[in-house]
Design goal:
This protein is 47% helix and 11% strand. It has 631 residues and is of the alpha+beta class. The strands form two sheets. Strands 1, 3, 4, 6, 9 and 11 form a six-stranded antiparallel β-sheet that branches. Strand 3 and strand 4 form a beta hairpin.
Length: 631
């Protein structure tokens, strides 16, 4: 806790401009950035203006994304209401203390967008993260017993996952509060398993509703209650007690009903801002329930949950090692993790845009602590079979194993202090994100087995496409068609396009087979140097599309066959010059598609008067690009 609060307190942002006053219409962050800026404006408007009209707030403190206007003609902010509701009384307290300080000459501006107000309010994120961990330690002790294993797990998760960043250097986001509210619900569920009294259902419903206010997707946490009820109902029916079974079902319904009541403030917010109680802003093509990208969310180099934070990987694995008496707890927490991973993987930007690790899974903090504690506990049970080894030695072993992951995480988090944005794009995990002294040995390991924390996704990818296991780290996470978010929310994707620049430098990681280097004629291109070569075409959108492949035989006419995921999409003879070979795809899936090009190899002599370079070996066809247009 001291480390987290200390890191939070020494973090200074101020958007690189500490002296200009805030409130002149320019977006100058203090501690609130991005989504956090928007949520703080909701809190400020709620606390000071007593309304949800953000025209004045965005006009005074910055509108970096030019927020659209809702049905009422006012600017809208789509972020959830839960964190601003938590911050509203804290803003009142900060304002009162500021007024007291001003009597003694503090000269704190009272408009609310100040370092004093934000430092006071966002301390809630640092404290929320710590309390979420304490709940995790408490539940780990309840599930497995002992003190050391839960303590080690709690410290490792607090300092070795995304939670570290969102509790300290990006506290204006709601993820630490999400971790706490989700942990509170799951913790109360665990310690009250087996009870069927009214009070339990009311508290469970209230806690679930609070978690939903912070992030609507936390409705999925209710799966643990559903699992418990299903197990209990089956037992009651086997015991021929249908009334008891019916009471359990009614209890589950009560949890859902009470959660819905607690969620009413969010419905009112949508009504005021968007004109409807169920006018959820993040809809359209933003969530694709039938097109999850689970392996990418967990293992890709683009903010993959496990590949970025091995502690999270170990925590989820550890849930399988809880003692037999805690089987229902293990099953419930595993199911909660599975539901949240699935929901996160259906979001258009499964990587979380500018995110440190997978920020949306901070809500799984408690399961990670419990799982990691179970893993440490199991290792301790094995160590107990070697009585001649002193117990302190095993504590040293635990520290030696966990400390590098914690130290690496803190080392990386410090790169993003003072408001520096977290990564948004694909950054291969090997090996620029490691201290230089460790780069050489870890690169040697990577070259042999790939990134072990990307397994099994990297192996599945390698076997499917017939490439080296290291390719996953470099190739998964970049996409040719990336529509703007406003069109995603409105589901207006027809006509959106992108170009996959096969003929340009930098695309080698997507090419399979023997290709030439990038050449220049009247446009950039590559020669195919085998009868059949392939190219990976990543796909983020499950929409029908038109694909155009720009090909040229370079000289004389040449037959060519194109296949898309092994299905023939074109078969014909290319005339001299560049030919746009177009075809339509109605049934597309997200992931990595394969374009296969089959043709004859032969010598090539550049036509007189052209800029084509001389080919020093037999070549197939020249490939410029693959153009994609959503239909």
């Amino acid at each position: 806790m001291v480390v987290i609060v200390g890191m939070y307190w020494v973090n200074d942002d101020m958007g690189g401009a500490p002296t200009p006053p805030r409130g002149d219409g320019v977006y100058r962050p203090v501690l609130a950035r991005g989504d956090g800026h928007m949520m703080f404006l909701i809190a400020r408007s709620t606390a000071f203006d007593l309304d949800w009209n953000f025209d004045n707030d965005l006009g005074r403190y910055g509108d970096p994304w030019n927020q659209p206007r809702g049905p009422g003609g006012h600017k809208v902010i789509p972020q959830p209401l839960g964190p601003p509701l938590v911050w509203t009384p804290l803003l009142w307290a900060a304002q009162g203390l500021a007024m007291v300080g001003n009597w003694f000459g503090a000269e704190i501006p009272t408009h609310g967008y100040t370092p004093w107000h934000q430092r006071f309010v966002f301390l809630s994120s640092a404290l929320a993260a710590c309390f979420a961990i304490l709940l995790g330690i408490r539940i780990a002790g309840h599930a497995i017993g002992g003190r050391w294993a839960p303590a080690y797990a709690g410290v490792a998760v607090l300092l070795g996952t995304s939670l570290t960043y969102y509790a300290t250097y990006m506290p204006s986001y709601g993820h630490a509060l999400d971790a706490l509210t989700s942990a509170a619900f799951l913790a109360y569920w665990v310690v009250t398993i087996g009870r069927a009294d009214v009070r339990r259902w009311i508290i469970l419903g209230g806690l679930l509703g609070l978690a939903m206010l912070v992030r609507m997707q936390e409705l999925g946490l209710g799966v643990v209650v559903a699992l418990e009820i299903v197990v209990a109902v089956v037992r009651q029916l086997r015991a021929r007690a249908p009334r008891a079974a019916a009471r359990l079902v009614l209890g589950g319904a009560a949890v859902l009903a009470i959660a819905s009541l607690v969620f009413i403030p969010q419905l009112l917010y949508w009504k005021v801002v968007y004109g409807g109680y169920f006018a959820v802003p993040h809809v359209g093509a933003y969530t694709r329930l039938s097109s999850p990208m689970i392996l990418e969310l967990l293992f890709s180099a683009r903010n993959g949950w496990f590949s970025t934070h091995p502690v999270a990987y170990a925590g989820v694995i550890g849930l399988w090692f809880l003692p037999r008496r805690s089987r229902l707890i293990a099953a419930g927490l595993l199911l909660a993790v599975a539901v949240q991973v699935y929901l996160g993987s259906t979001i258009f930007d499964y990587w979380g845009m500018a995110s440190y690790g997978n920020r949306r899974l901070c809500n799984m903090t408690l399961p990670l602590v419990v799982g990691l504690a179970a893993l440490v506990w199991r290792c301790g049970r094995l160590a107990a079979r070697l009585p001649r080894v002193p117990r302190p030695i095993w504590h040293i072993v635990a520290l030696v194993i966990l400390t590098p992951f914690v130290a690496w995480n803190i080392w990386r988090v410090r790169d993003y202090k003072a408001g520096k944005a977290a990564p948004e794009g694909l950054i291969p995990t090997c090996c620029e994100q490691l201290p230089r002294r460790f780069t050489r040995p870890l690169r040697a390991v990577f070259q042999q087995i790939g990134n072990p924390f990307q397994f099994p996704a990297n192996l599945v990818f390698a076997l499917r496409h017939g490439v080296e296991i290291q390719r996953w780290d470099r190739a998964v996470g970049t996409y040719p068609v990336m529509p703007p978010l406003n069109l995603i929310f409105e589901n207006k994707l027809a006509g959106q396009s992108g170009r996959w620049r096969i003929g340009f430098q930098g695309t080698e990681r997507y090419l399979i087979g023997t290709w030439s280097q990038s050449h220049e004629a009247d446009r950039r291109f590559r020669w195919t140097l085998e009868p059949t070569v392939r190219a990976l075409i990543p796909n983020l959108l499950p929409n029908a599309r038109t694909v155009t492949v720009w090909l040229s035989p370079g000289g004389a006419a040449k037959p060519v066959t194109l296949r898309w995921n092994d299905r023939v999409t074109y078969e014909g003879v290319l005339a001299p010059g560049w030919t746009p070979v177009a075809f339509t795809l109605d049934d597309t899936e997200v992931g990595d598609d394969e374009l296969s090009i089959t043709t004859e190899l032969g010598p090539f002599v550049p036509p007189a008067g052209t800029a084509w370079p001389v080919a020093r070996e037999p070549v197939g066809v020249a490939v410029h690009s693959v153009d994609i247009v959503i239909r």
